[in-house]
Amino acid sequence: xxxxxxxxxxxxxxxxxxxxxxxxxxxxxxxxxxxxxxxxxxxxxxxxxxxxxxxxxxxxxxxxxxxxxxxxxxxxxxxxxxxxxxxxxxxxxxxxxxxxxxxxxxxxxxxxxxxxxxxxxxxxxxxxxxxxxxxxxxxxxxxxxxxxxxxxxxxxxxxxxxxxxxxxxxxxxxxxxxxxxxxxxxxxxxxxxxxxxxxxxxxxxxxxxxxxxxxxxxxxxxxxxxxxxxxxxxxxxxxxxxxxxxxxxxxxxxxxxxxxxxxxxxxxxxxxxxxxxxxxxxxxxxxxxxxxxxxxxxxxxxxxxxxxxxxxxxxxxxxxxxxxxxxxxxxxxxxxxxxxxxxxxxxxxxxxxxxxxxxxxxxxxxxxxxxxxxxxxxxxxxxxxxxxxxxxxxxxxxxxxxxxxxxxxxxxxxxxxxxxxxxxxxxxxxxxxxxxxxxxxxxxxxxxxxxxxxxxxxxxxxxxx
Length: 465
Hints:
By secondary structure, the protein is mostly helical. It has four domains: 3-70 and 195-244, Rossmann fold; 86-185, Glutamyl-tRNA Synthetase, domain 3; 260-372, Glutamyl-trna Synthetase, Domain 2 (Glutamyl-tRNA Synthetase, domain 2); 378-461, Arc Repressor Mutant, subunit A, CATH 1.10.10. It has 19 helices and eleven strands. The chain has a three-stranded antiparallel sheet with strand order 3-4-7. The protein has a two-stranded parallel sheet with strand order 1-2. β8, α7 (219-229) and β9 (235-239) form a beta-alpha-beta unit.
């Protein structure tokens, strides 16, 4: 059975790049009737952020990318939290030592700092010099008996070519001489990422690993660990990077739009975001740009993933999101807007009436209230100075009082007739009317808006101080 996983760390809030990776994990598993699981990599206690684990769950739920096994719901391979698996890592680290594929390192911080300084002075790549790899067993035992602090390092073989056949990148070769003797157990007894991820993926029977291209340089260490343990290596697929909007470098966490919360708070639709993320690197066989998750699962072909990094373009995401909004049933959009603005206590019946006026105009849910706030409260200021228009609005007031059936067509007919009678150009006439009713020069259709506001409220707004 195909088994994929996401293994986030609770060291911050979810990044859009994490969702990008999860999307391919989830889709590949579902396409092959497999399972998508979540494991929590919480061994970096110094960077732990309280509450971030819960935010990870909520983000996955918001996107509908729910794992079938996780620390929250359990499963046959529990525990799914790395901090609860420490004895497992210790066991396998000792196995590597017994097989001479790892060794104890007793080097002090001062010695390592001095070593790096010398390497930098000689313009060498900073790598451990294997000093403790050559210690005799008696000296190792003595150090352990004396409780000298240590880490455990993997023993990278010399002069070996390490080959990875990547599902996306193709064949990649690494030379062992460029690979450091990586620490796999830290001085506090916790594993580093490299040991924990290999052990967990094997024990949890993960068959396919999708992750960002930036992780490719660390993969030969994992390949070696699989070889040391004589375990089958899962299939790897290193996804193209998501680049900053200028195309220079990986999408940085420093930018607001790298955070999942950014999209949630601005009213983007999760299904639109997933569609956009898929489009960044995958090409629909029919040339379509708009398709839902089920269609993506059905048609996904890993061979059609591009090899180049893709620029994250917020304007293109706005376009995709706008199409999803336009294609939505009015009742559904009404529910989405009500939920987005639930703290505003907007009247549901009024919001529903406004949907036909704004559905073609908004690109995200947060666009709604700036465009429609005048439906819920009279404008407190105007984008045009109306101080010398009092007499004009008094005449409009008198004319509209005569309209007995307050409908869009009759409102418009009455206003057009008055503009003609007063010999005012329609453009100027209706601009003034739009501003006095809505406060703005640009708004939803005026006559339809006035029908929704009802006669009494419109007449009240025509009386300006």
